[in-house]
Write a structure and sequence with these properties.
N-(1-d-carboxylethyl)-l-norvaline Dehydrogenase, domain 2; 35 helices; 24 strands
Amino acid sequence: MSRMIRRAAVIGSGVMGSGIAAHLANSGIACLLLDIVPETLTAEEAARGLNLTDTKVRNRLAVSAVAGLRKTHPAPLYDSAFSELITAGNIEDNLEQLKEVDWIIEVVVEDLAVKRSLLEKIESNWQEGTIVSSNTSGISINEMVRGRSKAFKRHFLGTHFFNPPRYLKLLEIIPGEETDPAIVDFMSSFCNKALGKGVVKTKDTPNFIGNRIGTYGLLVTLQEMREAGCSVDEVDAVTGPALGRPKSATLRTLDVVGLDTFVHVAQNVHDHVADEGEKAVFNVPEYVREMVARGWNGAKRGQGFYKSIPTKRGKEILALDIDSMEYQPRRKIDSETLARAGKIREAGERIRTLINGEDRYARLAWNATKKVLLYSAEKLDEISDSIVEIDRAMKWGFNWELGPFEIWDAIGLEASVSRMEAEGLAIPEWVKQWITAGNHSFYKWQNGRIYHFQAVADAPAVQHGDRSEAYSSDVGTHSRRQRYAVLEQDPESISLRSLKERNPAVLSNRDASLIDLGAGVACLEFHSPNNAIGDGIIEMIEKSMEEVRRGFKGLVIANEGKNFCVGADLKLLLGSAEKKDWPAIDKMIQALQSTLLRLKYFEKPVVAAPHQMTLGGGVEICLAADQVNPAAETYAGLVETGVGLIPAGGGCKEMAARAAAVIKGYPEADLQPFINRPFEMIGAAKVSASAYEAKNLGWLRKSDRVIANRDHLVYEAKKTVLSLDALGYAAPREEKIKVVGENGKALLLLGADHLRRSGYISDYDRTITGKLAHILSGGNVPPGASVTEQYLLDLEREAFLSLCGETKTQDRIRHMLVRGKPLRN
């Protein structure tokens, strides 16, 4: 049966429920958000003369939740206008409407009795065929539907979103004993593509995969902190990026999650496992329980392991001393091992360097890591059928750079197991058998493909022409056979790394490569530090156009870096400015301008696929493309004013051209309002909070297509290139640009002067915006004049060079390089 989800219902409008409703709205799905009916009036409702029968009162909880979505930071919505897709109601008056939806999600309190009662009510208003799911973090899916009909059970499963639903990639899908496998497959595909989620299928066990392994890891780290006598600062210094974890590390993560939530999740495992040793680990330390008793639940209560206090300079972050239960100033951690590891970009090498160090911090890292690795191996069969699912759950749900089995490979499987055994630790039998059979890792690359450990039911060996796909080990494990299996890839997920493993890049230099995607499409991939634009990327754009002109249908610009492109190489630029090497800067700007102008008018289609931070020159590259297919999480902006500069790779010129295009064909229309907007946005260095907001700000066209799942960017961009080619692509023709001229420039400057007098911008900001106004208006030309693109590019270059010579601009660049944030001098 063909299924589609056009409309959904979320029951429970708390932080999680409203966040799920918001993300459904982000995906264009109309959503009914329901909650209980309040039992009492608020003071405001009473003052307005309302009573408990009024709809506004009865729907208050859901209505307030929807209103809160527009104010919450980080924003649950891609665009605040998406909240219009959410309709608020209550579970007494609106349950009949459940018959009109395609998917019902319950997100009520984590209490089995409450959930069972609600599911009974849902079934009485349920239309057969509608999918029903529970967003539980650990309650048994099968226990929830005891007593429900067989048809209902076939349509019921767990869908565990991680919080916040918009930003965390992981979605655990938990089938029940009687869930229809076709529904599991449909939901996995739908949530992957439409919601942009990384879907992991889990077994119906306490806390599933992510919270089972993640909570265990947090608890053993707390134990190691106590045993090693380490401070809060020390633990987070070790268990953050140095160990391949987020900057929030361990204790700041607990503050963000909420210590009361953490205790609840840990208690759920403690209460539902039989092994006494495992129970002991999931028994939360007494000092954490004391913190919860005092209300020190973390960020939501203003204090947890950390506490922020106001100071004359702003605020100071204090760290808790768990012995005295008092807050103290944070201190810098001095460790040669941490310093050495911190300089390494590749996660596996960084982790290996840290745990193999000689100081107490290395020992802390090793002791915490080894326990997580062993626990993951011990629980493999219980919580999942695949090491891949476990690794993905930890990467997608907890933002680890590597999952447990990937970490084991990175630190050396055999060497680390020998070290564990020397320390008296018990190694799971299946791990020892895998090593005994001659295997050196859980994953391996071979012929451009990834293989992973797999245990399968015992069966006669199958003959394969390629032994890499046959059983590599015939060691039996309880009638199971171990082997390397091909890691199945999402067909819509194109890995540039895998492509380069199979075949060398068509072209390459230190900063970028041109990769053959097949079907006549090439991909230009950036891989410079931070994907910043320097001579190497400019050179590769030029060479890529030459290569595509000769043998390809079109070009994709995409990469797999943390960010698409953070703009120009500021370190290189500052070095030239400090040496007063103006010819070098002029040459670099001219090269970027001329290259992107040729890219804009290239005779074959160009599609850019940005993601995450897409700043300055990264936006200018997108502006030169025929179409942009951004990831939904794309944070774009022409931010050069933040470092004392103006966009000079064609950014100002393109914004002026797009403003003029709006009124093309309307000779009497006023261009000024359409140029005011980019002047404000560039002047304020405004960065979008999503790809949809980037459209509203003007960095993207309304016609540019947003992609929910970042993993699908290259695939979708390739499809777009082929579509443009099939339609008979014709390159755009250069046209002159109508500008507002000197009168429009005066109006822009008037606005800038008002901001300066009001204290919103500094004197130097006014200097920069003056140059920006000169470019966007077309300079000292009559109102309504038409100018060439090269004319505006020359204005950009002139302004950029003059600002590079200013001490305050150099101070701003230096501050950004050192502090990572703008200086308003």
